[in-house]
Amino acid sequence: MATPIGPFKAVCFDVGGVLTQPMNAVMIKSATDAGIDLEVLGPVFHAMFVSEGDDETPGHRLERGEITIEEFLDIVGVHGGEIRKVLHPDSEHFAMAKLSPSHEMHNLVREVRDAGFATGIISNVVHEWMPWWDKFVPPPNMFDTILYSCIVGLRKPNPSIYAAAIANLNVEPHEVLYLDDFEPMANAARDAGMHVVHVHDHSAAIAEVRLTLAL
Q1: What's CA 13's distance to the chain center, in Å?
Q2: Which ranges in the chain are annotated with CATH 3.40.50.1000?
Q3: 122 forms bridges with which residues in the sheet?
Q4: What is the pTM of this model?
Q5: Residue from 214, 11, 185, 205 nearest 104 by CA
Q6: Which DSSP letter does residue 20 get?
């Protein structure tokens, strides 16, 4: 394995929307197919899973592995039935079952690893979704650390999950290049001292990584 040249020693990846195809279109199609009014539930989904902060809201507790998806759906009450249609693995409209890996991003993982960089995953995920997450990522031996929120009990954008990745990789924060598609999570990684590639478009993000790392 080569030795990296330059200021970076590690590259970390989010999963949903980074190591997979973009999530928004899949979520919207699943919700539409399920007959969900996104004008009503869209803000609810966003507040539960993509918002800034890390607190005791049900979505955050679910992603930290503190409650099951069934408990989560009971807690959210009036919206639970509609949310189940998109987020529960038993539903025919389960969004994660319709999501596919990003093969170009998987190739990038191999490319940066072959170039000598350590690699990691920092991802918010629900326990019940793990069988799909396992399909969305390259083999685990391609990564030096994997931090899934429901397993480690921390979720982005909590600074502690980024600090844990940095410690596990035995690098300094500024030596990490991190890819994420959600702005609050990307901003939190910047605040933790990482260099961030905000993934809007997979091909553009890959080109930015290659330029930044001089691959």
Answers
A1: 7
A2: 10-22+100-213
A3: 147
A4: 0.93
A5: 205
A6: B
